[in-house]
Write a structure and sequence with these properties.
By secondary structure, the protein is mainly β. The protein has one domain. Helices cover 13% and strands 40% of the residues. Strands 1, 2, 3, 4, 5, 6, 7, 8 and 9 form a nine-stranded antiparallel β-sheet that branches. The radius of gyration is 17 Å and the shape is globular.
């Protein structure tokens, strides 16, 4: 309860400014993506076996080749992690790809702390809820609780119609849920 209150106070008094996101909303992003892994619901030893599933939504009128996603690290002595994607997403369409498991969790201090408190990671995405709810319980009922951590990701892609390369630094949310015991 004390942690929830402290996190609520922090979220209410601290303004979070993320590079590349000032004045941008999730709807401004030409590509929305989400990463899932069955390993996040199981024991750590199974991480390598489960892989990652990436789903991407292209909001542009051109086909896009998603080159990579690079997740920033905010933990000391950790480097960013780059996922090489190489996925074609049709104009105004969806695409998905299975990737080998890459640890995207140990890069972020909030994620590490949250996982130690028995929360379950549901997805990592660059859309849905406003990042100003960082470290704030956004739903707390007797049946279900949701919690989020925010980080930075660099998305690189090519517009296949024009050949233009794009690089976008934006926020990414780690979405957690917890059910009562």
């Amino acid at each position: 309860m004390l942690r929830m209150l402290m996190n609520s106070l922090l979220a209410a008094t601290v303004t979070v400014t993320l590079p590349g996101s000032v004045g941008q909303s999730p709807e401004d992003s030409p590509l929305n993506f989400a990463l899932y892994s069955p390993s996040w619901a199981s024991s750590a030893e199974q991480n390598l076996l489960s892989g990652l599933r990436l789903v991407v939504d292209n909001h542009t009128e051109s086909p896009i080749l998603l080159d990579s996603l690079e997740f920033a690290a905010d933990v000391a002595n950790m480097d960013s992690r780059k996922l090489d994607i190489d996925l074609r997403i049709p104009a105004t369409g969806l695409a998905e790809k299975e990737l080998i498991y890459t640890d995207l969790l140990s890069l972020n201090a909030c994620v590490n702390e949250t996982l130690q408190e028995n929360w379950r990671l549901v997805e990592i995405s660059n859309y849905t809820l406003n990042p100003s709810v960082r470290r704030l319980i956004i739903e707390d009922t007797s049946a279900f609780r949701i919690y989020q951590c925010v980080s930075s990701v660099v998305t690189r892609w090519v517009n296949e119609d024009t050949g233009d390369r794009s690089v976008r630094e934006e926020w990414v949310l780690y979405h957690f849920e917890s059910r009562p015991r």
